[in-house]
Amino acid sequence: ERRREFELNLEKAGLELETEHKKAHSRGRKFFVASLFVFNTLIVRLIVLDRDPPVVKSDIAAHFILKPFKLPEEVKNPLPDYFTAPFSKEKQELFLINNEDTFFLPSTRNRIVFYILSRCQYATEEGKRKFGIKRLLNNGTYTAAYPLHDCQYWKKAADTNCENERYTLYIEWAKFSRFYKEQPLDLIRKYYGEKIGIYFAWLGFYTKMLFFAAVVGLVCFLYGYFTEDDATWSEEICDSRIGGKIIMCPLCDQRCSYWKLNTTCESSKKSHLFDNVATLFFAIFMGIWVTLFLEFWKRRQARLEYDWDLVDFEEEQQQLQLRPEYEVKCSYRKKNPITQEEEPYMPVSSKFARSCLSGATVIFWIALIVASIIAVIVYRLSVYAAFASIIKDTQGLKSVGSLFTPQMATSVTASCLNFVVIMILNFMYERVAIWITDMEIPKTHLEYENRLTMKMFLFQFVNYYSSCFYVAFFKGKFVGHPSKYTYMFGRWRNEECDPGGCLIELTTQLLIIMGGKQIWGNIQEALVPWMMNWWGSRKARHHPASLYSRWEQDNDLQYFGQLGLFYEYLEMVIQFGFITLFVASFPLAPLLALANNILEIRVDAWKFTTQFRRPVAAKAHSIGIWQEILNGVAILSVVTNAFIVAFTSDMIPRLVYYYAYSSTSEPSMAGYINNSLSIFELSKFSTRSKPDENPDWFSESLYTTCRYRDYRYPPGHEREYSHTMQFWHILAAKMAFIIIMEHVVFVVKFFVAWMIPDIPADVKARIKRERYLTQRILHDYELSKLKEKLYRQAECPQTAREVQATTEKIQISQNSIY
Q1: Over the chain, what is the mean pLDDT?
Q2: Distance CA 19, CA 34 (A)
């Protein structure tokens, strides 16, 4: 009954319907109903959906692109470029409607038909109207609703009347062998709509900009690699006469024993790959790069707005259309002061209650993430003692490789565990975020997407980056000293960093989480849809076309979903955070992101063209709220990288030693390691901290002191174990460095942003020219109509004089515009 009423109302709304009964389908009986557009119906919807039809062909030339990267002209520019104007049914003959079948882009037809489907009524119960295809899908009246793909993707259609955009996109865009070619953005926009077109334009531009960051990052990494043997501090650690004679204090209570400094030789050498002078340069470079990326994207976006006739499009106007869910669930009504029409609304008390519940839920889940991070930290503290007891002496350490230190083993296993926890929490919170956003009942689609975006990004930010913030800014900073260690919850002793610093552990953490996320994301995006489609169509895919029609094949594909594009943006923005917030610790991060994104573009293209039903087209002139999120991450990245260089890296302590505390007549790094380690008397170890067992080479009669990483006065000094002046000098240098670096980078960022206009000058000129020509055409059209009316009414002098006066006024107005 619901179907009958709904389909009857669709026909009244101007759609034509066709029904097919799949009698021979091997998996049961199914009915397919096709909603076909009618030209006059779509014309009526033009004003509602804000689409400007073409008036005259454009006379502006296209951009130049190098031939190896260029696509065939028919693929790159599938439609001629036109100047457009706001549609008016009274002036319909003015617009270039040469062919009613091709006047509307496929994405526009798609969008208008779905607009009708989503607002068509199917029942009235208890005085309430029930409408919309979404509710009919939720209550099982229909099983699916989707636009049809154009033909097959692997071959051209035999019917010459069938468009082949899907096949063209598959051949020229989705194949990985075309990774070096430009994307057919105009064809993507024509087939999928502006919103998906903007996403791929942004992803492609982001990937191009990553190339420059990747090259600079690779150069910085190679600098560290080729200067690895020039690091004096690493040589001192590895030297058996220096590092081999320095006895270090135990790194955990009881189960850890004394150890020699040269056991960390390899890890200290490897840390130089990332902890060198180039680190500072790269951190500053990335602060400027991110500004250039965002500013140049605004310019690229302005070009797309013009090319795709979105200059006068306000997303808010489109999104002011109420969500059907809002109209259904809001029983109260009031008059809109603008439209003077009755419309549904939600009382303030209900909004407040829902917002409080939503906020409490978000806080609870963020607290859950923090609890999981604390649990991983406790794991690090407890498992470290286990690794330290396994690797007790230098010989045992060398037997498994000198890179396998207790610190490294703990860091790697904790990072893997943290990645698993992140994936589990992501899976759970995605559903919670959608539930609480639905519960808030946002008024418009734009409001719904913005609220969900902020919730998901806030959660993902805390989930993905918390462990990196811990390693970068907390690990090794609150350890205490041997006579007074700091304990977490009074039980677990806080972690210490290697004598070479914690930067290499931050690099390991970043590599595992970022790399693991990208590998898992590509598997999830490509393999899972393919397997589900293969399984779902296993019984019918070998049937002839008469038994397995194109609409049935599309029905067996995966549903992209209203939030499908949201997850694509979220994945890339999280990656953007990794390569900007912590890039000072891992210069190769942009290179990994570049390789991933080259693959990501083609995987997404393949997925759209082959594995998913055709999404409902949507119009958008920008990436929306993601732009503000990217700006916020860019500003925060300057702060985080300054703190990483100052507090996580050992660069500042080395510079202070080189210029102020070097023991030689000329500034030198010789003696830095001995200077950076404090002394502790073994007899003052408490029972809780003293090792249960000593290594074979250790003799209490020979060794009476051990060393630890800090700047404190030695035993016997009047200020025993308190911080030395060198500690305060280093701290002052770190704070001064942070302030100087932040101000320098921010000044350069804002200067660059001020220097680069958001809209290119040639685009501004094109916009003005288009407005000038369209205004001129419209004025000429009005004048011709008035003249015709004048000639027709020449027999009535009074009317003729009035028409003549009006014509003169329009001519004067037209001349002033010219």
Answers
A1: 80
A2: 6
Is 723 in a helix, a strand, or coil?
strand
Q: Can you read off the two tokens belonging to residue 177?
A: 């062998």
What mean pLDDT comes out for the span 307-323? 65
Kindly state the tokens that stand for 78. 């599938």
Stated as kind and residue range, the H or E segment containing 46 is helix 39-48
CA atoms within 13 A on the CB side of 50: 18
Q: 176-231: per-residue pLDDT in tens?
A: 888 888 899 989 998 898 899 999 999 999 999 999 999 999 999 999 888 887 88
**Residue 53 exposed, middle or buried by CB count within 10 Å (0-12, 13-18, 19+):** buried
More confident residue, 322 or 758: 758
Tokens 């029930």 locate to 130
Cα–Cα dist 781/778, whole Å: 5
pTM for the whole structure: 0.84
For residue 480, the surrounding DSSP H or E stretch is strand 480-481
Residue whose structure tokens are 């830095």? 672
d(CA 692, CA 727): 32
Most confident of 409-418, 475-484, 503-512, 640-649: 640-649
Report the distance separating Cα 252 and Cα 375, nearest Å.
18
Rounded to a whole number, what is the largest CA-CA distance in the chain?
129
In this prediction, residue 606 has a pLDDT band, given cuts at 50, 70 and 90, of: very high
For 151, 163, 434, the CA distances from 160, given in Å and listed in that order, are 11, 8, 44
pLDDT value at residue 790: 65
Helix axis angle, 406-440 to 348-390, nearest 10°: 170
Q: How far apart are CA 140 and CA 126, in angstroms?
A: 21
> 713: which 2 tokens?
């006065």
Q: In angstroms, rounded to a whole number, what is the distance separating the alpha carbons of residues 774 and 814? A: 12
Cα–Cα nearest to 679, from 238, 235, 246, 243? 246
Lowest mean pLDDT among 103-112, 544-553, 758-767: 544-553
For the ranges 246-255, 500-509, 570-579, 721-730, which has the lowest average pLDDT? 500-509
Residue 707's φ and ψ, nearest 5 degrees, are -115, 150
Element (H, E) at 597: helix 589-606
Alpha helices (H) along 400-500:
406-440, 445-473
Q: How is residue 652 written in tokens? A: 């500042």
Identify the CA nearest to 269 among candidates 504, 50, 426, 91: 504
Q: Pinpoint the alpha helices (H) of 623-760.
A: 625-643, 651-656, 672-676, 725-755
Give the number of other CB atoms < 10 A from CB of residue 621.
21
Nearest CA to 670 among 233, 347, 292?
Answer: 233
Q: How far apart are CA 187 and CA 213, in angstroms?
A: 29
For 130, counting Cβ atoms within 10 Å of its Cβ (0-12 exposed, 13-18 middle, 19+ buried), the class is: middle
Torsion of CA 41, 42, 48, 54, to 10 degrees: -140
Q: Torsion angle, CA of 214/216/220/223, rounded to 10 degrees?
A: 110
* Helices then strands, each counted (H, E), the chain: 27, 16
What are residue 681's DSSP bridge partners? 705
629 confidence band (pLDDT: 50, 70, 90): very high
29-46 confidence digits (pLDDT tens): 567 777 665 555 555 555
Tell me how far apart the alpha carbons of residues 628 and 768 are, in angstroms, rounded to a whole number. 28
Please tell me the distance from the alpha carbon of residue 605 to that of residue 500, in angstroms, as a whole number.
Answer: 45
pLDDT band at residue 817 using 50, 70 and 90 as cut-offs: very low
Other C-beta atoms within 10 Å of 810: how many?
15
